[in-house]
Amino acid sequence: MKFATRAIHAGQEADPATGATITPIYQTSTYTQEGLGEHKGFEYSRTSNPTRAALEACLAALENARYGLAFGSGMAATSAVLSILRPGDHIIAGDDLYGGTYRIFERVIRPMGITIDYVPARETGAYQAALRPETKLIWVETPTNPLLALVDIAAVANIAREHGARLVVDNTFATPYLQRPLDLGAHIVVHSTTKYINGHSDVVGGAVLTSDEQAYTDIKFYQNAAGGVPSPFDSWLVLRGVKTLAVRMRQHCENAMRIAEFLAEHTLVRDIYYPGLPAHPDHELAQRQMAGFGGMVSFAFDGTRADVDTFVRHLKVFALAESLGGVESLCCHPASMTHGSIPAEERERRGVTDTLLRLSVGIEDADDLIADLDQALQAVAATRSTAISGAAR
Prior knowledge:
- The protein has 2 domains: about 5-240, Type I PLP-dependent aspartate aminotransferase-like (Major domain) (Aspartate Aminotransferase, domain 2, 3-Layer(aba) Sandwich), CATH 3.40.640.10; about 245-390, Aspartate Aminotransferase, domain 1 (Alpha-Beta Complex), CATH 3.90.1150.10.
- The chain has helices spanning about 5-10, 50-60, 75-80, 100-110, 125-130, 155-165, 175-180, 215-225, 230-240, 245-265, 285-290, 305-315, 345-350, 365-390, and strands at about 65-70, 90-95, 115-120, 135-140, 165-170, 190, 205-210, 270-275, 295-300, 320, 330, 355-360.
- α12 packs across α14.
- The longest helix is centred in the C-terminal third of the chain and has 27 residues, at about 365-390.
- With about 400 residues, it is an alpha/beta fold.
């Protein structure tokens, strides 16, 4: 079956008890057993639940993975993968990554005796150069958050494999509709299902997908032992959302391209980050590695933080908010929101400046989105003109 069909049907056979077409919400904590050791595959819902199992099977099918595990948040999924490490192990990570991932690396994992080196995300050779005998994981996002650089998954996967390490890819921005890292040689895929997979900004969740049996066994043990699992209702919401992933991603990509082209020509925009633009340094890699360029667009003002504040205050369709991947368009200021846990000096060094904004482009009419950005940019220009006039007087 092709992707859109799998999103609707994989793991979602008609309910055997009632024939219900849609997977039911099995809102139960426990299951009645017929005798000692005699049950119907479920004993306790922290360990397994039919609604969650349907979601895990569906997501595994979409990533072409043998195994899927669902979690209560993207960070719970990240924590579960990191649980396979031990003191003395070493991680190599791309340097442009979600602030929450940086926070858990630096404030949870490093104090446990695990070392982390950050390398320029798009520089394949940097991963090779950073290898140590104790390197166990290479961790990348692609496209990266928030600067939308790309990592050559196949090349970095070869580096990891030759060294005996595992490559973990956070595929949240691309989704399995646009990019399937396991097909390119990655070992483990992580998602915040809060984002595009759910797509409606009404649930928090995460997932780990892999075909590595040992990794699955270890992470599954942690899932049950730590218990950071989604509720049956949250699992059902994500399962409902993923049914429309294909059609939503097509519209996200179309709208994002139009917005990127608009911003690239605007005089108030200093830098524009979108892999769909031919001028993007990773455009050719994006064409090879992805089935589309995604719904995320970042840009930096040729101005000050005050200009950014004026801009976001004048937005009417875009909402100033954290998160991404919903049907509605959002505008995020990474330095003060999603990446605020990274020290200011380190943020600046990585390019996450006070004038950078990240747009999660929704599926509204593109003309309305461009008009909203245009009027907010005009407000910035008008404020600047007033300030200049006042100074002249």
